[in-house]
Each structure stands twice: as structure tokens, then as C-alpha cells.
Design brief:
Length: 351
């Protein structure tokens, strides 16, 4: 908190002289698969807290980002609705936050074009996430390359001041901040530079249950690598039972030497609130195999109300669609204001 600006969150046409400390927080999530325990414990659970704090909060299902890598057109929209249902089931509340779908607000791509004209290929090519994702592709889609520019547009369109991100996204927020400054220098003060909101220690970073050196991810082809929030209890137990650990039977934390067991303890800490010492003490005498079953039960119990709510919401796709449309109406109004200012400043329209 505590930044100063001469803009309000909602209106860029006038520049009120008073400073405001109300944060505008923008978060995005791709509908690339089902929400998993890593997304929940590492992000969405904290997002729910953010919406309680009196800030101006936007949650966006970023479907345009998801198509930077191939998606199945017959399932993409149901994934968008599924992601919306997951967010609501976790506690995101459309009456407190703007919940919307990126592609319903065309200003995201329009502003991305303008911002893309203000950065260089060298800058985008050096971003670590691009390097990592493009290394896996034979032919690199242009969309993958300009992805961070679209992300910058998502943020700047709403004059977001804070963007909750994991460490892997810090450089993208830096790019958005640089683009805000570049735009302001060239065309006059319009945007404020957003900051990364690094979530606290309670935001767990989970690793894959199959390859604990890699992160847990929605788009990883092997579904056994993650626990989806919709997984029934027997599936959750089976996934924990088969989670890759090592040949030491004792339960103790060592993220370097024992990434598998340590990942389980990170999940335990996030779900039960116990610290590593407490977990280790409570697990004395248990083998890792037995510990996995105890943890699986704790996770099943923790996820039960979310899963129930999620299944209920999924039965009413029309209702989810309506929520997204209502959210888009709110978002569009704000996006249109920003885009109107940009068109005039860049000279696409006369004064
Ligand atoms: P994809 O595999 O499509 O990249 P993802 O599972 O990595 O998906 P994102 O949509 O990229 O998820 O990210 C959504 C949010 O979840 C982000 O805030 C991100 O930091 C967080 N997140 C993603 N994976 C993890 C994880 N393994 N542990 C903790 N947080 C995570």
C-alpha cells in the first residue's frame, strides 16, 4: 500500500488531485485445465483474502492467453466455465470482485497491439518463461512470443496497481511497468506502473506428484502429477499413494535432497496449518507410505466443501455464463474508458 497517483481506478478522463490508497488488483488464470491444489494453495486461496480487504479486485479467466498453445475448440469454453466454477467454489465472490472472461472484452487485444508497438523483439525474447515454453515447441507461435504484451494490456487496461504473481511472473510485471512508463513518456501521463504482489509465506509452491523437481501444472499431460479440486476422494488417495518420493522411509523436510517428501510436507502445512517440526513430530513412527495416506485424508477433508460447491455450480452452465457476461459488462465499461484515452493520446483519433 501507500503508492500515490493522480488517477482514480475508474476514470482516466479527469485527473483528480487527491491521492488514493485503494489498490486495484488484477489476477488472471488460464482455462488450460482444471484448477489444481497448487493453483488453490499457491494463488486462489490468497485471492479470496484479497477480495475481503476493501480493494478494487478483478479476476480474469484469460482464455486468449490459453490459445497461445493449442487448445481443443470443443472443450475450451467448457474449461472456461469450469475455471469460473472453481474460482467461485473456492470463495471468489462476483459481488465483491469483477469476475470475467478476457475474450469478452476486445480492448485487451486492442491495447496489446499498441503496447506491442512500444517494445522490442529482443526484450520479449529474453523473458525466461518464453525461453522455457518455446524450447518445447518445434514451431513457435507468435502468440507465445507476445503473450507478456497481452498480459501487460490486461493489467494496464484497468490501471491495476498490484498483480499477485509467483516468482516466475515477476519479469512480466516488470515489462508491464516499463511499458506504462514508455507509454507515459511518449504520449503523456496515462498509466501507473503496476507492482508485483508477492504472496506471503502461506502461499505454497507445489511440485508435481510424479516429478517433484517440476512444478505442479494444469497443462502437464499426466493427470497423476496433480490433484484437481474436482477429484473424488478415492482418486485423491490414489494420487497421494503413488506420489513419487525416495527410499528413505522417515518423514522430514529437505527440499534439495528430498523434493518428493518435502512437497508432501508443504501441502500438509498449507492444509493443516502445522509447521514442518510439528508435522515431523506427529509423523514419528510412520513410514512415508503411511504418511501419504494420513495426508491424503487431510486433503480430502479440506477439499470436500469446495468440491461439493464446484459440482453444484457445474450443473448450471447458463448461470456461469451469466456471471461471466455480467462481469464482462463491468470490465468493458472500464476498458472502454482507457481505450478511448489511448486512442486520443496515440493520435488514432483527433482531439
Ligand atoms: P499452466 O500449466 O497452463 O501454465 P498453471 O497450473 O501453471 O497452468 P497458471 O494458470 O499459469 O497455472 O497460474 C494460475 C495461478 O496459479 C498463478 O498465480 C500461479 O502462480 C499459480 N500456480 C500455478 N502453479 C502453481 C504451483 N505449482 N504451486 C503454486 N502456485 C501455482
Amino acid at each position: 500500500r501507500g503508492f500515490h497517483t493522480n488517477h482514480t481506478a475508474h476514470c482516466q478522463h479527469t485527473s483528480p488531485a487527491h491521492a488514493t490508497t485503494r489498490r486495484t488488483i488484477f489476477s488472471g488464470i488460464q482455462p488450460t485445465g482444471e484448477l489444481h491444489l497448487g493453483n488453490y494453495l499457491g494463488a486462489v486461496r490468497q485471492w479470496v483474502q484479497l477480495q475481503e480487504g476493501g480493494d478494487d479486485v478483478l479476476f480474469c479467466v484469460v482464455d486468449l492467453h490459453s490459445i497461445t498453445l493449442p487448445q481443443d475448440p470443443t472443450t475450451l469454453y467448457s474449461q472456461t466455465l469450469g475455471m469460473t466454477a472453481s474460482l467461485l467454489a473456492c470463495g471468489i465472490d462476483p459481488s465483491r470482485a469483477v469476475v470475467f472472461q478476457q475474450s469478452r472484452v476486445p480492448e485487451h487485444t486492442q491495447l496489446a497491439w499498441v503496447l506491442g508497438c512500444l517494445t522490442t523483439m529482443a526484450r520479449l525474447g529474453h523473458l525466461p518463461q518464453y525461453k522455457e515454453k518455446s524450447a518445447m515447441q518445434k514451431e513457435i507461435p507468435l502468440g507465445l512470443y507476445v503473450y507478456p504484451v497481452l498480459q501487460a494490456a490486461d493489467i494496464l487496461l484497468y490501471h491495476a496497481t498490484h498483480v499477485p504473481v509467483g516468482e516466475d511472473q515477476l519479469q512480466h510485471i516488470q515489462l508491464a511497468a516499463d511499458l506504462a512508463r514508455i507509454f507515459n513518456n511518449k504520449f503523456g501521463k496515462t498509466f501507473r506502473a503496476p507492482r508485483s504482489l508477492v504472496l506471503g509465506q502461506d502461499a505454497a509452491r507445489l511440485r508435481s506428484l510424479r516429478q517433484p523437481t517440476k512444478k505442479m501444472s494444469k497443462s502437464e499431460p499426466d493427470p497423476r502429477s496433480r490433484v484437481a479440486l474436482s477429484d473424488p476422494p478415492d482418486v485423491v488417495r490414489e494420487k497421494f499413494k503413488k506420489a513419487v518420493t525416495d527410499f528413505t522411509s522417515e518423514v522430514y523436510y529437505d527440499s534439495q535432497e528430498r523434493p518428493g517428501v518435502s512437497n508432501l510436507m508443504v501441502i500438509d502445512r498449507a492444509v493443516t496449518g502445522r509447521n514442518f517440526e510439528e508435522i515431523q513430530a506427529a509423523s514419528q513412527g510412520l513410514t512415508t507410505a503411511q504418511y501419504k495416506l494420513v495426508l491424503a485424508d487431510a486433503v480430502v477433508e479440506h477439499l470436500a466443501p469446495i468440491r461439493q460447491h464446484y459440482n453444484h455450480l457445474l450443473q448450471e452452465p447458463g448461470h456461469l455464463d451469466q456471471i461471466l457476461e455480467r462481469g464482462a459488462q463491468q470490465a468493458r465499461e472500464r476498458a472502454a474508458n482507457t481505450w478511448s484515452v489511448v486512442r486520443h493520446k496515440v493520435g488514432l483519433l483527433g482531439k
